[in-house]
Specification:
98 residues, mainly alpha, 34% helix
């Protein structure tokens, strides 16, 4: 067998094994991320995906054609902004999470 052919096969084998290792690592990370999923049972704990309310304490979801629930947030300058202050205007909300 030609040495060049052996080198190509060896290189191909290393590439395939490397891709399998990366795929396995990605699968393990996905499984761990899913196992840390959101739950209302751990209400209020960091990383639980909830804001300290149990499922039965949540207000009903807004309905189409109804006003959105009023809330107040702090903007980037530290000022409080209330949703009702913008009544009659278009509001675009962009919530970021890390």
């Amino acid at each position: 067998m030609d040495i060049s052919l052996k080198n190509r096969r060896s290189q191909r084998r290393r590439v395939v094994l490397g891709l399998l290792a990366v795929a396995l690592l990605g699968l393990l990370m996905a499984i761990q991320a899913c196992s840390m999923g959101f739950s209302t049972e751990r209400s209020g704990q960091e990383g639980s995906g909830t804001i300290g309310l149990k499922g039965s304490e949540l207000p009903p979801a807004p309905e189409i054609g109804r006003l959105a629930p009023d809330f107040t947030l702090v903007d980037l300058e530290g000022s409080q902004v209330t949703l009702s202050d913008f009544r009659g205007k278009t509001v675009f909300l962009n919530f970021w999470a890390t």
